[in-house]
Every structure is written in structure tokens, then in C-alpha cells.
Amino acid sequence: MDSNARGSWSGHLGFVLAAAGSAIGLGNIWRFPYTAGAGGGGAFVLVYLGAVLLVGVPILVSEVVLGRATQRNPVGAFRAASGTGGWPLVGYIGVIAGFVILSYYGVVAGWALNYLVTAASGGLSGMDSVQMQSMFEDLTSSPYRQVAWQALFMVATILVVSRGIEAGIERASKVLMPLLLGFLLVLLGYALTSEKAMEGLSFFLEPRFEDLTWTSVLAALGQAFFSLSLGMGAMITYGSYLERRRSVARPVMTIVAMDTSIAILAGLVIFPLVATYSLDPSSGPGLVFVVLPQAFLRMPATSLLAALFFGLLVFAALTSAISLLEVVVAFAVDELRWTRGFASWVGGGLIFALGVPSAVSSGFFGWADRVASEVMLPAGGFFIALFVAWVMPVDVAKEGYRGREGGLRWYSQWRFCLRYVAPVAVAIILLQNIGLLD
Ligand code: TRP
Fold first, then answer.
1. Distances (CA, A) of 13 to 18, 72, 242, 243
2. How far is CA 342 from each of CA 326, 328, 338, 351, 435, rounded to the nearest angstrom?
3. Which of 46, 129, 301, 437 has a Cα-to-Cα distance from 52 of 20 to 30 A?
4. Is any atom of ligand 1 closer than 6 Å to the C-beta of 302?
5. Is 103 in the pocket of ligand 1 (CB under 6 A)?
6. pTM of the model
7. pLDDT of residue 416
């Protein structure tokens, strides 16, 4: 199959926005601020930046290089680059991880969609905080309503992916990413001028080295990994639609800078609000759906601000969901020779069905999340790093990095981190997560 039949990005900008869309998700807006607040504030943020540069960037580069060099989905990429051996298994783990992650990601995104529609139609104004609390409980205890919102979200995801790389994914990213940034900046204006903004900011950013434990260092590594969408071939797949002329260094650094900035901006919005309205900053999963809405209730333009916030969450989740479904669809298109439309509806439909148990049972939800993000992603990332650093022929990796006409800027630093730093760090996370380190 020639590369035109698979589709491609119109240029580097399309790739950068789509990949940033994949990276920027629920992980940035909910998980990062909360983890940083609990894990040492500014000290955590510093460790996180180190983890992004020394582990996240090298693995992101290697996914993009592997995808671009082979122009294949994760399974096909390993097969094409390795010739023999069990390496395509790593690609299969990635495709399965895409299935599992999107199944419960769609449930959470469905909650956000429900809140967005409620806020935008004025349903939040006049609520008190008890009603706000029970709104979340009512929603999450009604399988029927959750599944309906999840279905709506999945249909939106399928519609984008079925239209293809440039007309679907790239176009959606070019609309959603600027909107997301715009919404975030409006909220930032409100947050930074709120009464106790400074108190919130110092909780978020003041380095508390005494709170920085071994566990929070590992949490920073895991967060960098999840936030950059690594370990399951999402970036292999997106890299496979990238032209092969210029170096990957600059687009990758742009993606990382965007993902990291949005995470920090989200913290700059959330903590001032949490401090001003005396909310609990370390309330876990409820932070975004129960605690933060309390702040909106007490702010002047409740419906508008809440709609902006939940719109932000839905857009972030949608561009991430698109990348998760694309891994499955690229596999079906390349390997099973399905048409894109058929693969999108069948793949998306099966993922939706797998998500139903997560909507019904929070135990199943937590289990799916742990298996995928604590075991499958680090295992996938470990083998991807190992493969590109030690197995793939050096000249193929080098050409994949620089392209036909690009330069080798940062190449040797990338290679060094990929060979010696990243595999060790990821192996430690994996061993810790499967309980072999303590
Ligand atoms: N990076 C996204 C977030 O921060 C989640 C995500 C999308 C993801 N695609 C992924 C995580 C692939 C791991 C692998 O929410």
C-alpha cells in the first residue's frame, strides 16, 4: 500500500498540533496539578521537568523516528524494522493498550461532556454546593446516563478519525487546540485576579523539598510518560504520517513545550481558585468534577466560566481520544486491509462496548486504568526505547531522525539518553508498579 492511501499530514504544523492534541489531555488539566500539589510543589515541578527532558523527550523522539522510518502502525513498524523475532508483540501490546485506555477515558470524557452541556444551558446557576456534589453522585451512579454520554463522545471521536489524517484529525486539531488555549487564558485571567491567588500559587510552586519523596519522584516520571502519550505507539502512528525530509528535533521539542506549558497553566488556574474558595487541593478524582465546580458556583459568571472549563476538558479529552482510536484504526487499515471508515466504526464500537463495564463499576474502571497506565505503558515504553537504541540499525535510526535533508542537532544527546538513561528509569517505574521493588 503506498503512503498516499494511508494519508499524511499537510506539513509539520499539522503533525505538531495533532501530537500536542494527543499529549494534552485529562492528564494535564486534572492529574498534573493535583500530583504536583501533593508531591512537593515547585520541587515536584523541577523533578517533572527533568523527567520530561531526560526520559520523555528521548522516548517521544524514538516513537516518532520509528513511525516515520517505517510509515506503519505500531505492529507493522516493529515488523518492518526488525525483520525477525518477537518485536511486533510490543506493537500488539500498544494496540491493546489503546483499546483499554480509550474504553475508560471515554467514560470520564462523557462526564465532562455532561457538565459542559449542563453548564452551557444554564443548569448550574442557582445550585448550592450540596446540589453540586449530588450532581456528580447522581451521574456516576446512573449507568444509563453515563453510557449515553460516553456513546456521544465516542461518536464524535469516530466521526473525526473516520475522515482521515488531514481532513479529520489535522483539521479537528487546528480548531480545538487554539480554542483550548483561548479558554485556558480566559480562566487564567480570572484565577490570577482572585482574592487568594498568591496563596494558591505558592502551594503549587513553592519548592517543598521535604515533601519530595522517592514516591513523588516516581510519580513525576510516570506523569511525564502518560502526559506525553508514550508507550503504546500513539506517537509511532502519528510519526508514520510525517514527511521524511526534515529533522524531527524541532517538531518534537515544540510538542513537549506545548504539553508542559499547558500542564503548568492548568495549575496556575486551579490552585488560585482552590485557595480563594478554601477548597481541598488534594481531593483526588473529585477535584475537577466536585471541588472545582464549587468555585464556579461562587464566581460572578457561573455558567460561562464553568462552560469554558468543561469545554476545555472536553476538547483536551477529544484530541487525546482521537489519537488512541487512531492507533487501533491504523492497525486495522495497514494489517487487516480494512477501510478507514469501517475500521473507525467497528474499532470505536468495540471500545465503547468495553467501556460500559467501566461506567457501571468503579472497580473495573480502576483496574483498567492501573493495568494500562502502570503496566502496559511503561512496558511498551521500555521495549520501544530498547529497540530503537540497541536493535534498529544505527543508520536507519539516524536517517529517521534527521530526514533526507535535515541536520543532526541534538542527535548525540538523544542517543545517549535513549541508550543509558531512559531504559533504566522506565524499568524502575515498571518494577515498582508491579510490586517488585518493595
Ligand atoms: N496524554 C493524554 C493525557 O495527558 C492521554 C493519552 C492520550 C495517552 N493518548 C495516549 C496516554 C497514549 C498514553 C498513551 O491525558
1. 8, 20, 10, 12
2. 13, 12, 7, 14, 41
3. 437
4. no
5. no
6. 0.95
7. 97
